[in-house]
Write a structure and sequence with these properties.
alpha+beta; 4 strands
Length: about 210
């Protein structure tokens, strides 16, 4: 259940669609970055669809597909847990994405019709104690049992408990100190605007640090 598997594919699929051609203003660059983040994290597609000359249906389909693929990459198909629990985890991760705490700020021209956009982020820390809490629960629950559950039963029980711990923390998510990530809006040889994948990854790493998941 590494962060990379849960989030990376979504960023690539949803946000790297090229924007329309023609000159872009600083306000448009800001709107483009915000709409891309909102589409990828908040599942808010209206403005993004307008800016990128696509449809909300297309953006939503891409979002859903990438969420499914991210669940596979996170290893849920190999866990052997019930379909119901997998569905619960999918909803949980979607809720986690929507809790992303960011604010798009200052925009500066970077020459040659390109821009640098500051994004203020607060890292998600709500799950930082889940591993320890889960270990304690496993010790308390299984240290002196007479009946030895099967591997499948044990796995389902542990994954269910972890889901319960995570879901409870999503009721009041916590965050770390603010930091700023610079996102570049560039133009390709055909005059279409895009956000480099490395910049999206940098935002993602700042929003959801691996050591807090």
């Amino acid at each position: 259940m590494r962060k990379q598997g849960v989030l990376a594919a979504m960023l690539t699929g949803v946000m790297l669609v090229l924007c329309g051609c023609g000159g872009m203003t600083t306000d448009e660059a800001k709107d483009y970055v915000k709409s891309a983040l909102d589409a990828g994290y908040k599942a808010e597609f209206k403005e993004y669809a307008e800016i990128t000359d696509s449809t909300e249906k297309e953006a939503k389909k891409e979002y859903e597909t990438n969420l499914d693929n991210s669940m596979k990459e996170a290893g849920f198909d190999e866990t052997g847990v019930s379909d119901e629990l997998k569905a619960n985890y999918r909803k949980l991760f979607e809720k986690m994405l929507k809790s992303a705490n960011y604010k798009v700020g200052e925009v500066k021209e970077a020459g040659d019709d390109e821009f640098k956009v500051s994004v203020e982020v607060q890292p998600f820390t709500a799950f930082s104690t889940v591993s320890e809490e889960l270990d304690n629960w496993i010790t308390d629950t299984y240290s002196n049992i007479e009946y030895v559950p099967s591997d499948e039963e044990l796995n389902e029980a542990i994954m269910k408990k972890m889901y319960e711990l995570m879901d409870e923390k999503m009721n009041n998510p916590t965050y770390g100190d603010k930091t700023t990530v610079t996102v570049n809006v560039k133009v390709d040889k055909d005059g279409a605007y895009y956000i480099p994948q490395k910049d999206l990854t940098a935002v993602d790493d700042a929003l959801f640090p691996e050591d807090a998941l």
